[in-house]
Design goal:
12 strands; binds S-adenosylmethionine; twelve-stranded mixed beta sheet
């Protein structure tokens, strides 16, 4: 490995080739587990990366070994210059993907195709219209559902992300798995994670073990098949025998995948987070704006990455995040 690639290696020997860029702190949904009811204070526009700055920072990461970039937010598609950003990033030798709530994604099908985006993660926490409206505080279920079907028809690889919250949507696990019966999609159940202002508590979380017990009890013996996970996969993948699609569990709380973590996050206001749970951030945007090289700031930030979940290595610490760490709301980190 050359010296440049080493910039993205941390003190635990992990190499980082995957950058998630949040394009905006704004969203057209108001998911209860993602942001407080009162909303979040938004950064002034002048503190947000312009499309040129997104490109300049991304280019530096690609130079040092990043091969995958995922665009997220907030809702990345509400950013007016999204097509321009995509076009600029598509000129880099990198695999581009996007995480979206899909409310308006039908307007971007051509743009996504033109710039080679194939993998799209869509958040959908309920297959029930009323529950969807309750959790997102917006009445957009039909748009999202139809857009998922359209994305599949258009040939995109679609993963559906569902955050499970006990007493709310854990009764839909089987419905979600049956959603994969005739559709070539992967439904991924995400363990509910604590972030600033989201009223997390461990009793609301549905764990990997609980999900699998429920699945194994609900389907005939030997019909639940464990699939091979890909390298650096954050999810444990399964399918039901004979189903077109598959399902997976992202167990960031009970079974973190930090050992193989290859991810870094850039917030919409240009801060590098070396972990979703990290309490520290490194200001790439100000460095870039003062005309200095951001390489050393990146190197220092990556090297300092803690071994497990931004230092919250035990469930006990995770249960009281405010005592151990200071973090943002998920909406301003970029999930
Ligand atoms: N607007 C886009 C979307 O809805 O997919 C991208 C941003 S959203 C913050 C990215 C992902 O973070 C979504 O899949 C969402 O479910 C997940 N997420 C947000 N808060 C979470 C939490 N507390 N625990 C687990 N996942 C969370």
């Amino acid at each position: 490995m050359n010296n440049e690639a080493k910039i993205l290696q941390d003190s635990h020997g992990r190499n980082h080739n995957y950058l998630r860029i949040s394009l905006t702190e704004r969203c057209n949904l108001r998911c209860t587990y993602c942001m407080p009811a009162a909303g979040v204070p938004l950064s002034p526009k002048s503190h947000l990366m312009t499309y040129e700055e997104v490109y300049d920072i991304a280019k530096t990461f690609v130079k040092h070994g990043v091969t995958k970039i995922r665009l997220t937010g907030g809702e990345p598609l509400v950013r007016k210059d999204f097509p321009v950003i995509l076009e600029k990033l598509a000129s880099l030798p990198v695999e581009l993907s996007i995480t979206s709530n899909a409310v308006i994604i039908d307007r971007f099908i051509d743009v996504l195709k033109t710039h080679g985006v194939k993998n799209i993660n869509v958040s959908l926490d309920s297959l029930n219209r009323e529950k969807f409206t309750h959790i997102t505080r917006r009445n957009q279920f039909d748009k999202v559902y139809n857009n998922i079907l359209q994305l599949i028809n258009e040939g995109f690889n679609v993963k559906v992300n569902a955050v499970l919250v006990k007493g709310f949507n854990n009764d839909e696990i089987i419905d979600f798995i049956n959603f994969t019966k005739d559709l070539p999609i992967s439904v991924r159940f995400i363990e509910f994670m604590p972030f600033d202002g989201n009223k997390w508590d461990v009793s609301k979380m549905v764990s990997y073990a609980e999900i699998m017990k429920y699945v194994n009890d609900s389907f005939p013996k030997n019909s639940v098949i464990r699939l091979q996970d890909t390298p650096n996969d954050t999810s444990k993948n399964y399918k039901i025998k004979g189903y077109k699609g598959s399902f997976a569990i992202i167990s960031s709380v009970t079974n973190p995948f930090c050992d193989s973590c290859n991810r870094l996050r850039l917030t919409a206001n240009g801060q590098l987070k070396n972990c979703l749970f990290s309490s520290t951030e490194s200001d790439l945007l100000t460095t870039l704006r003062t005309g200095k090289s951001i390489d050393q700031v990146i190197k220092k930030a990556v090297f300092a990455k803690l071994k497990v979940r931004g230092g919250m290595d035990t469930l006990n610490k995770l249960q009281k995040p405010h005592l151990h760490s200071k973090n943002r709301s998920m909406i301003t980190i970029g999930g």
